[in-house]
Amino acid sequence: MKSFVENYPQFKKMSGTVSKHVTVVGELSRLVGNHALLAISECQQELVCGSDHSANLQRIRQLVTDPKVREIDAAVLVMLYALRHEGHPNTDLKGLVSALNKRSVGDRYLKLLSSLMDYGGARARQSDLFGTQLPQDVSGIRKRFFKGLKGVDNVYTQHKPLLLETLEEVMKGRLREGAFPYCGNAPSMPPGTKPQHVVVFIIGGATYEESLAVHQFNTKSSNTRVILGGSTIHSTASFLSSVEAAMEGVPRKTLRL
Questions:
Q1: pLDDT grade for 154, boundaries at 50, 70 and 90
Q2: What family does the Swiss-Prot or TrEMBL record give for this protein (predicted)?
Q3: What is d(CA 57, CA 147) in angstroms, rounded to the nearest whole number?
C-alpha cells in the first residue's frame, strides 16, 4: 500500500498522457474515415508515381463525386491530374472540371487550377518533376528499370520529392549548371571529393515531405550533412495561397476555364 501511494502521482500522470494520446488518435481516425483520406492519399501517390492514365482518371472521377471528399481535396486531385497528364492525348480535364462544378466547388479553386498550370505546368518547369523523360545515361535507365521491378512496399509513401534526386546528384558532382548556376566563381574541388556540408534553401517554401527526405538522407550518409531551409513550411492550403498570390493579375496562358 505504501509503495502504491508513493507511485500513484506518477501512475496518474502516465494515465493522463495515455488518455490524451488515445483521444488524439481517435479523432485522427475519425477524420480519416469521414473524409476518405486514405483513398485520397493512395490516389495522389498513384497519380504522381504511376503511369496508368486510364486507372488514374477513373479513380479521380469516383473521388471527386464522393460526398465524403472535401472540396479542397477534390480540387487538389484535379490539379495533380492536370499537372501529371498535361498533354496526354486522352486527357479529360474538362470532364473533371465539370464534375467539380456539379458539386458546387468554389470559383477560387477553379481559378487556382488555371493559375497552377501557368505557375508549375510543363512550360514553367526546368526539371523532370514526374520522372517521365527517358534518362540520358545508362545508370539512370538501370535505376528506373530496377525500381519498376522492385515494386512498392507502401503505396502511401512511394513518392520521393525531387529534392532527394537533386541531393544525390550533388554527391556525384553532376548538377546541371544550367539549372543550378554558380554565384561568383565555381568552387574548385578535387575529382571524387564529396561535399561535407550542403545548405538547401527553397525560396517559396519547403514541405514536410522534403524535410523528412533530408532527415533520411542525413541518417544514411555518414560523411555529408544537409541543412534544409525555406521561406516557410507549406501545407496544401498555404501552398495554394502562395500560388494565388504569385499569379494575381497575371494573364492566363496555359489553361482557360
A1: confident
A2: Belongs to the STXBP/unc-18/SEC1 family.
A3: 24
Q: Mean pLDDT lowest for which of 34-38, 44-48, 155-159, 208-212?
A: 155-159
Mean pLDDT, all residues of the chain:
85
pLDDT of residue 138: 47
Cα→Cα distances 255→54, 110, 162, 178, Å = 22, 11, 25, 28
How many of the other CB atoms lie within 10 Å of CB of 164?
Answer: 16
Domain 11-159 has CATH 3.90.980: no
Compute the radius of gyration of the chain from its Cα atoms. Answer: 23
Strand segments (E) across the chain: 197-202, 206-207, 225-230, 233-234
Helix (H) or strand (E) holding 77: helix 71-84
| Distance in angstroms (rounded) separating the CA atoms of residues 149 and 37 | 28
CATH superfamily for 161-257 is Sec1/Munc18 (SM) protein, domain 2 (3.40.50.1910)
> Residue 234: exposed, middle, or buried by beta-carbon count in 10 A (0-12, 13-18, 19+)?
buried
Q: Would you kindly state where each structural domain of the chain is located, as residue ranges?
A: 11-159, 161-257
DSSP collapsed to 3 states, 233-257: EECHHHHHHHHHHHCCCCCCCCCCC
Those residues with Cβ within 8 angstroms of residue 32's Cβ, 6 or more apart along the chain or in another chain = 38
Kindly tell me if the per-residue pLDDT of 145 is higher than 50: no
Cβ–Cβ contacts within 10 Å for residue 140, how many? 14
Q: Write out the three cell numbers for 144.
A: 528506373
CA-based angle 241:78:155, to the nearest 5? 100
